[in-house]
Amino acid sequence: MGQENQHPLPSRKTESPPPPQMGQENQHPLPTRKTKLPSNSQGGAVRSCCLCVFIFLLLAGATALTVWLIYRPHKPRFTVVGAAIYELNATSQPFISTSMQFTIVTRNPNRRVSIFYEKLQAYVSYRNQQITPPVDLPPLYHETKSTVSLSPVLGSGTVPASAEVVNGLMMDEAYGVVALRVVLLGRLRWKAGAIKTVKYGVHVKCDVWVGLMKGVVGQVPLLGAPPCKVDI
Prior knowledge:
6-stranded antiparallel β-sheet, 15 strands, about 40% strand, 9-stranded antiparallel β-sheet, elongated
């Protein structure tokens, strides 16, 4: 007796933790990387650098503008002041015989800038058609506020010409007035002190009206010679 009401106590089961899942054994929180913002000192240095560049460009532009306004070159001036016709025969079509000389005066109007001419050529045209072969002229140095005279002899022998040129010359010769154009081509550059510019092409066109009498050669009167047109 005394053992009838004795019952065994229920045993307590201890639950073990679940096994770790695959891929989670070595998972650890990664350290976060902090982004450093530029400091005020770096931003100030960039602004100072940009300001210095801007001031430099501004001063350089102002200096260049001042130099240009002081030394701004003006175009040279050309004028035909004399003419001589030694031969102008348009009777043998389709060729003409020409030999003439023109005195050209060129003026440099600049006070501080001199002019260098290179590869100059001259020829004569009639009704926009060339009637003399181009003649090479020597290099020319044009000092400030100076005047230079050129007297090239243009034309030699016979040159081919169109029927319009031949007929027009015969009519003008009979009338006593011939309209010609003296053309100068070449390159120039300006010089101000130690500064030299790049080379520029120059094209000079001088329209002249000469009095021409049949059988008369040599110096002929200029009936009209306006200032030449200069393109650079």
